[in-house]
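Re: weekly structure request thread

Next one in the queue (201 aa):
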Amino acid sequence: MSRSTLAARRAPVLVATLVAFSCVAAGCGVPVDSSPTALSKSGVPFDLLAPSSPTSTTTSLPPTTVGVQIFLVSPAGQLVAADRPVPYPASLSSAMAALIDGPTNGESAAGLQSAVPAQTDLLSATISGGIATVDLGGTFGQLVGQAQIDAVAQIVFTATALPGVNDVVFELNGQPVAVPTASGADVPTANRSQFRSMAPS
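Done, posted below.
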């Protein structure tokens, strides 16, 4: 059989196959409506009908207060630490102000007291190179004897409780002054080692 004869016999079969395929393809197509059609609720996926909640972002706010330690004097003459809230971030000024405020009613009832007069004026309080400089006025300059030693010890321990503070320089109305240590010796710069006998147990 020649190739031309075989091709002639296959032609009708190929045409019939193409016609059948076209009919099937037309029947499987997605119908298109000429106008919009409303869907019932049952025909809509559940997630599309559910109300959505607005998302919120939580922002962490910085604290408004922070705790510092002040030091009071016990009936035995020892220093006792007491916590105080001060505005964030803590500063030497806020710690000194808390110390000048003195003991709470509960602390006073427990026998704790402060040798730092409530009428002390805090003129300035700064930190530089690990040294706190505290400038005081008011009745602080009237202290003498053991009361003065106790007050100086309280200020030294309160100031050096802050990070980075090792020594304390005292000023009275803007003028540097020497202060007594636990041994009674006057020093221009004070630190905790000079009040070991009064340190908290």
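Residues 65-196 form one domain. The longest helix spans residues 3-27.
Next request, please.
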